[in-house]
Amino acid sequence: MKHVFIAVIISILPFLSFAQDLEFTLPISVSDGANSIDLIVAVSPDGSSTAFVEGLDQLAPPAPPDGAFDARMKVNGTSYFTKYFDNALTEKTATFEYRASAGNGPITLSWDQEALDIVGTFTITDTFGIGIADVNMNNLDGSYTIPSPGIIQSTFNLVFTPSGNSLDPIAETPEFSPNGGTYEGSADVTISSASDGASIFYTTDGTNPTTSSTLYTGPITLSASATLKAIAGGDGFRPSEIAEASFTILSNLTFTLPISVSDGANSIDLIVAVSPDGSSTAFVEGLDQLAPPAPPDGAFDARMKVNG
User: Is the same domain home to 28 and 100?
Assistant: First the structure.
């Protein structure tokens, strides 16, 4: 029997150690369509599932007057915007309370579905404990609209059990150098992220990048105008927010094309030209040649006009 007891202790030690270091935060946004508040459910080795923890928890202020939007969660009768629970792998409960502002609604919840599925199991239940409301948030797609009227139209219990799995950090948003602008001929762009070890993925056609987009391996040369977008992510990270910069590339093309206009006895060359310093709308000093006023009737004339 001693050997069996020792084997059991050894088998659960890694599990207990993993739970001991567990920490995560899961924002759940509560909105009435015009207003929103993030209620943050969190787990920490220093958290408490019963009492306020100074330096971690954020208390909610007193409820606003009737007709105003409100959202809060309560644990043991105390109202919170952020509550850090202990990190034991046991069931925990927070009571969500909410109301839409006058003329708005319904109340909608939204969250990061991938993060929720990783950190635990989450269920919305009625506060009466009679099981009329029983919504498994792990089976949803990151949002839920509160039925109204209904048994949870103003409050519900969020019951959750941590899985023991931690969330990968969100990668820092990439930065461009240069960060957009107008350039002649081409522009060489470097992309970086403050998250050491994160990969960067980008697009140049204005579409939103994913971790399946082109992998950044070195400076990008843009020879035509483009909207550059990039995210950071990859192994060990959740994807960052999307960075975006617009680049206008001016061609360094230059040519002149004389077009001769003649009546058989007289002729004038009208010269169409392209230059990086030219303008398609306005007169350019040092490049363009203005025509004189038109001659009197009966005289030969030829000219071209741009914007009158």
Answer: yes
Among candidates 205, 244, 242, 201, which has minimal Cα distance to 222?
A: 205
Helices and strands: H and E segment counts in the chain: 2, 21
Distances (CA, A) of 82 to 99, 137, 161, 273: 18, 19, 17, 65
Show the tokens assigned to 14: 């890694």
Please count the other Cβ atoms lying within 10 Å of the Cβ belonging to residue 187: 21
Residue 217 and residue 233: Cα distance in Å, rounded?
A: 14
Largest CA distance in the chain: 123
Q: Give bridge partners of residue 185 from the DSSP assignment.
A: none
Bridge partners, 122 (sequence order):
160
d(CA 36, CA 100): 10
Are residues 126 and 205 located together in one domain of the fold?
A: no
Residues 152 and 186 in one domain: no
Residue-wise pLDDT for 92-105, tens only, equals 999 999 999 999 99
Give yes or no for a cis peptide into 149 (omega within 30° of 0).
yes
Whether pTM > 0.70 for this model: the answer is no
Q: Which of 250, 274, 290 is the last residue of a domain?
A: 250
Tell me if 155 sits within 8 A of 98, measured CB to CB.
yes
Q: Which residues pair with 84 in a beta bridge?
A: 42
Q: What are phi and psi of 222, to 5 degrees?
A: -100, 120
Partnered with residue 27 across adjacent β-strands are 40
How would you class 268 by CB atoms within 10 Å of its CB: exposed for 0-12, middle for 13-18, buried for 19 or more?
A: middle
Containing structural domain, residue 231: 175-250
Q: What is the pLDDT of residues 42-87, one digit of tens each?
A: 999 999 999 999 999 999 999 999 999 999 999 999 999 999 999 9
CA angle (251, 253, 259) in 5-degree steps? 130
Q: What is the dihedral of CA 270, 271, 277, 283, to 10 degrees?
A: -10
